[in-house]
Amino acid sequence: MTLKTCKLGSQGLQVSVIGLGCMGMSQSYGPADEAESIATLHRAIDLGCTFLDTAEVYGPYDNEALLGRALKGKRDQVTIATKFGFRIENGKQTGTDSRPEHIREAVEASLGRLGTDRIDLLYQHRVDPAVPMEDVAGAVGELVAQGKVRFFGLSEAGAANIRRAHAVHAVSALQSEYSLWERNLEPEIIPLLGELGIGLVPFSPLGRGFLTGQVKRAEDYPDGDYRRNDPRYQGENYDANVEAAAKVSDIAAARGVKPGQVALAWLLAKGDGFGIDIVPIPGTKRRKYLEENVAGAAIKLDAAEMAALDEALAPGKISGPRYTERGMAMVDR
């Protein structure tokens, strides 16, 4: 199948209905394989999965450079989203930095690594408490006026900062974790997105792999794999979460599809239910899983299946925080 496109927010950005999260191609989930990663990116273009998500901090820098190499001669076939907002020192992320001068420097560097003259969607990766959001939105607005950026996005921002940013320069998309596994956006953020005409780009839409049914305990993953430190993969949390996620596998088995495809179909249906644009970006570095994810767009869950999933994975049924304490401290809620 070839994916359709859809609008993301009310500012005119068109993207594929499912995107591709590229972070894992740079060693967040086990060793990197550049040849397979590039083959996966090229296969994504063939399938119409052309909304590609990266960030300067992935690697750091390696992921943008990988996309730059893979997209030579193919730039006009894709929509590239990248992110600024971290201070990177000696190859490590050491805090936030969204000073306007740093934003300008980061964008120039990203353009160079990506081998392009414009970024289609530029996100602030995390809210910087030291820099007024008005200054951030203003700096991005200047880059839009210069043609270096097309659309403005935020990641993991809270309601107050979304409103402040949008008042200065229209926000097209909010990228935040949202899935059957993590529904913290539903009470306040999703209604706000509907009010302001902002699209939602859920990252980790498969629960960092948990909703695929192919999971192991934290200690069974190799060193360097993100999941070794994920609280939801540890101890009693893991046991409770396996039980909660079983409903996804049950529905998948009844339909003869993959659990991850059911999780993506749930997300796409939620967009219709909430009246907002939802475009998930499942991450993978392998063609096999890319093809599975793209096929999830064709699955339409009925009302009974949606209700069963909503109940089985209601917020109170998921055990453990989604990040370590340090990670949660950077979420603007």
List keywords for this structure.
about 325 residues, alpha/beta, TIM Barrel, 7-stranded parallel beta sheet, 11 helices, 11 strands, about 40% helix, about 15% strand, oxidoreductase activity
Overview of this protein structure:
With 333 residues, the chain is an alpha/beta fold. It has a single domain (5-209, 260-301), classed as Alpha-Beta Barrel (TIM Barrel), CATH 3.20.20.100. 39% of the residues lie in helices and 15% in strands. It is built from 11 helices and 11 strands. The chain has helices at 34-47, 62-70, 100-114, 133-145, 159-168, 189-196, 235-255, 259-274, 287-295, 303-312, 325-328, and strands spanning 5-7, 14-16, 20-21, 51-53, 79-84, 86-89, 92-96, 119-124, 149-155, 171-177, 199-203. It has a 7-stranded parallel beta sheet with strand order 3-4-5-8-9-10-11, with helices on one face. Strand 10 (171-177), helix 6 (189-196) and strand 11 form a beta-alpha-beta unit. The chain is globular and about 50 Å long. The chain starts with a strand and ends in a 5-residue tail after the last helix.
> Structural class given helices, strands, pairing?
alpha/beta
- What name does CATH use for the topology? TIM Barrel
> Given this structure, which CATH class is correct?
Alpha Beta
Q: Give the % helix.
A: 25-40%
**Order of neighbouring strands in the sheet with most strands:** 3-4-5-8-9-10-11
Terminal-residue CA separation: 38 Å
Order of helices and strands: EEEHEHEEEHEHEHEHEHHHHH
The DSSP helix count reads 11
Classified in CATH, the superfamily is NADP-dependent oxidoreductase domain
How many domains is the backbone divided into? Answer: 1
